[in-house]
Amino acid sequence: xxxxxxxxxxxxxxxxxxxxxxxxxxxxxxxxxxxxxxxxxxxxxxxxxxxxxxxxxxxxxxxxxxxxxxxxxxxxxxxxxxxxxxxxxxxxxxxxxxxxxxxxxxxxxxxxxxxxxxxxxxxxxxxxxxxxxxxxxxxxxxxxxxxxxxxxxxxxxxxxxxxxxxxxxxxxxxxxxxxxxxxxxxxxxxxxxxxxxxxxxxxxxxxxxxxxxxxxxxxxxxxxxxxxxxxxxxxxxxxxxxxxxxxxxxxxxxxxxxxxxxxxxxxxxxxxxxxxxxxxxxxxxxxxxxxxxxxxxxxxxxxxxxxxxxxxxxxxxxxxxxxxxxxxxxxxxxxxxxxxxxxxxxxxxxxxxxxxxxxxxxxxxxxxxxxxxxxxxxxxxxxxxxxxxxxxxxxxxxxxxxxxxxxxxx
Length: 410
What we know:
By secondary structure, the chain is an all-alpha fold. It has 21 helices and no strands. The longest helix is centred in the middle third of the chain and has 32 residues, at about 215-250.
C-alpha cells in the first residue's frame, strides 16, 4: 500500500507544470536529440548514391559507417562519466562543435573512402555525447521524467525523419557532398542555441542510494541485456530501411514518376517514405512517454516490443503499399518504447549516477548495436536484403524473453 507521503509526491509529479528552467533544458535537449539522430541517419540515405560515386559494392559502402556507429555507442560511458563530473553544458558545446567540423570533413573527403570513413568516425565520436549528457540532464532536473523523455524522444524521431528527407533532397539537387555540408552547419547552430537559452539547474541534491535503488542493481543488469538486443534491432532496422524501400517499392516509384511533372529518383522516393515512417514514430514516442507516466513502465516495455515481432517477419514478404503499412506499425512500437526504456533506466539507478547509467546503456545499445551494420552487410551478401528483417524479428523474440525475466525479477 502506498504511504500518504508517497501518494502526495505522486500527485505532485502528475500535476507539476514545467518551470522556465525546465523548458530551457527541454528545448536544448530536444535540439541535441534531433541532431544526434540526424547525424547518424544521413549516411543510410546516401548508401546507394555512394556506391555509384565511389564505385564500391553496397556491402563495402555500408562498412564505411561501422566506426561511426561503433563510436557513437562505445563513447557513451566515458561521456556519461564526464557529464557526472563536469555537467552537461560543456559536453553539449563539444557535441555541436565536434559534430559540425566532422560533417564538413565528410563533405571535403567524400571522394576518398578512407578519409570519408574517418570523418564519419569523428561524427559518431562527438554525436555519442548527447544521450548520456542530455537524458541524464532530463532525469535529474525535470519532475515529470517520463513526459520529458517522451517529448525528447519525439525530437529524436524528428531527426530520424528529417535526415533521409533532407538528405534525399540535397542529394537529388547537388549530391551527397551538399548533404554533409548542411549537416555540419546545422550542428554548429547548436552553440548559438545554448547561448540564447542557457541551461540552469534546479538545485535538487544528488542524494545517497535509497533502499529501493540499492535493491535494483540486478534488475538494471537484466535491463542492460534487453537494451543491448534492442540496440541491435534498432540499428539494423534504421540503417537498412532507405535502401530496402528503394529496392522493394518499385510500383510506388513508377506511380509517382508517372504523376510527377518533374523527374524523380528512386532514392528521393525511398528517403521520403522513410521520413514519413519516422514522423509517425514521433506519435509512438509521445504515446510511450504517456504510458510510462500513467502505467507501470515494464509492462508497456514488454507490449511495445511484442508488437514489433510479427511486423518484422511480414516485412520480408511485402512490397510497396503493404510494406510501407507494416513499416509504420513496426517503427511506431520500436521507437515508441524508447521513453519507456529511458524511464526504467532512471527508476533502476541512483540519481547522482544518471549520466553514467545512460552512458552504460548507450555503450550497449549503440556500441554493440553497431554490430548490426556488419550483420546487415553479411546477410545482404549471403541471403539477400529480404532476409534482414526476419533476422531482426528473431532478435526481438529473444528480447521479449529477457523482458519477461525482468518482470519476474521485479
